[in-house]
UniProtKB/TrEMBL annotation:
Residues 1-55 are annotated as: Disordered. This is Uncharacterized protein. Residues 33-55 have a biased composition (Basic and acidic residues). Residues 1-12 have a biased composition (Basic residues).
Length: 71
C-alpha cells in the first residue's frame, strides 16, 4: 500500500529533527471498544415472558372517556 500524505510529513519531520507526534497520542484502552453492548435479537426473544391469554387484569381501560351530561 502507498503511504498517506500525513505519514510522509511525519517521517520527514522525524528525519529533519522534528518532534515525534506519535508520542503525544493517547494510549489505547485495556478493553475492546468494538464489543456489542446491547442484547442481540435472539437474546431478547429468549428472555421474554410468555403472556397469559386468560389474564384479564392486565387490560387497561383508562383510555375510555364518557362525557358528563350537562344538567
Amino acid at each position: 500500500m502507498a503511504k498517506s500524505r500525513a505519514k510522509k510529513k511525519r517521517e520527514h519531520l522525524l528525519r529533519n529533527g522534528g518532534r515525534d507526534v506519535l508520542l503525544s497520542r493517547g494510549s489505547t484502552p485495556s478493553f475492546s471498544t468494538h464489543e456489542r453492548m446491547t442484547k442481540s435479537k435472539k437474546e431478547m426473544l429468549n428472555t421474554r415472558k410468555p403472556k397469559n391469554p386468560y389474564d384479564h387484569i392486565s387490560v387497561d381501560d383508562k383510555g375510555f372517556f364518557v362525557p358528563k351530561k350537562a344538567a
